[in-house]
Amino acid sequence: MSGYAFAKVYFGVLGATILLFGILQFSTGLFGPELSAGILTVPQDVWSGLILFFAGLFVIDGALKLHDIHGLGKAVMGSIMLWIVAGCDIFARIMTPIFGEEGWVNAPNGFLSVFEPPYAPALFLLPFSLLIVHFMRKSG
Questions:
Q1: How far is 32 from 108, CA to CA, in rounded Å?
Q2: What separation in angstroms does the CA of 79 have from each of 13, 40, 107, 111?
Q3: Please, which residues bridge with residue 119 across strands?
Q4: Backbone angles phi, psi at 40, to 5 degrees
């Protein structure tokens, strides 16, 4: 299997997973409680769910035409959208314990406890999306 054939399957599955988590996050934000299973939790966030939904669509569409610069651009754009949502989640995880409920600065164990699981879908999918950097460099 060539590199691009593997990448089509990989980014197709990744895009479908991002799309699924976007739908779940959007629907829990509108209709239901937060879903949690093991190290993964789907928060009630409509806007992040909407962004993840479209990021999944872009990654899937880009994966089908990864040889073309436009297909690669769509996959990169979808990955960047995922990175933005994950970056916001990371920023919220960092800032929440610094400015805790007890006062301006939280205790050290309170600070470190926020970085334990469960994680949002964007944080979980972030490392898997970094493979797009290889294809960006490969395309020149």
A1: 34
A2: 13, 20, 35, 29
A3: 40
A4: -120, 135
